[in-house]
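Technical note accompanying the year-one report. For the benefit of new consortium partners, we illustrate the data format agreed upon in the data management plan: each record pairs a sequence with a structure-token string. No post-processing was applied to the example shown here.
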Amino acid sequence: MSGHIEERLANMGIELPEAPAPAANYVPYVQSGYQIFVSGQISIDADGQLIKGKLGDGMSVEAGAEAAKRCGVALLAQVKAACGGDLDQLKRVVKLTGFVNSTADFTDQPKVINGCSDFLVDVLGDAGHHSRSAVSAAALPLGVAVEIEGIFELV
């Protein structure tokens, strides 16, 4: 099923992948009432390759922001799966929590997570505005640069 949101993604040159399967003993999302709680999505490029790196140690803020954007793509893929394929059931993004694989002295976590935030606002307009946390992590699973979890509201 294709609707307004997927048309917007297509106009941006973005095709949602199949929702990634969980890598351990958890579910990719949980629905409670009209809210979808999406488990952390790691940075994976359009070819399915992990985006690895540590901010403050050889990885630029711009590369980190692109990794965060790819987390946003994965988040929307999970929301689409939760909605039975009808992404237009998405009413708004409520909250994101972003984790940045970074050195102890790196302080631009918000600029990195902006890659996801900006992407969601570009796709969803006002419905993409959300509350957010952007925190540092000494390491992330599989050495990825970014992991982001989200809470979304359905219509």
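Partners are asked to follow this layout when depositing records. The mean pLDDT is 96.
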